[in-house]
Amino acid sequence: MNAPATTSMPRALPAEHRQRLMGIAREVAFSEGARLFEEGGRADRFWIIRTGTVDLDMRVPGRQAAVIESLGHNELVGWSWLFPPYTWHLGAEAVSPLRTFEFDATAVRKICQEDPEFGRTIARWVGEVVAHRLQAARIRLLDLYGPYGSGSRT
């Protein structure tokens, strides 16, 4: 659940960009079991976790959804808001009471267009998160469906 240094928002963004982003944040709480979003839905916002845990999951035909990764403090929940067609690639559920900072995706994309340096910083951060999540999904799916030991990180 601990984010690598480059995917944790405070470590990934310089102070001035972090302050600008947090200037448009709003505090939101979710109860345990709440769905933040569903795979295939419209990605119009994203969150930074303050407290609690979120499971990212993927629908698997004929099976229960597979939990890909658990996210915690200071981690980004949702990256699909940055890339057209702005639809969620995974689902997300609060597995404990959750307090977050919520961001309107349209507002953040507008700031990214107006301030190219800010936009590059956000794109690099989100890209690192996407790369990390892709690797986590690969390992998790190999653990679930591959030959024994195929998902190990060795």
TrEMBL record:
- Ranges where the Cyclic nucleotide-binding domain occurs: 9-78
Task: Quote the PROSITE patterns the UniProt record gives.
Answer: CNMP_BINDING_3
In terms of SUPFAM superfamilies, this protein maps to: cAMP-binding domain-like (SSF51206)
State the Gene3D superfamilies in the record.
Jelly Rolls
* InterPro entries reported in the protein's UniProt record: cNMP-bd_dom (IPR000595), cNMP-bd_dom_sf (IPR018490), RmlC-like_jellyroll (IPR014710)
Q: Name one Pfam family in it.
A: cNMP_binding
- Residues in a coiled coil are none
This protein is called what?
Answer: Cyclic nucleotide-binding domain-containing protein
Q: Which domain of life is it from?
A: Bacteria
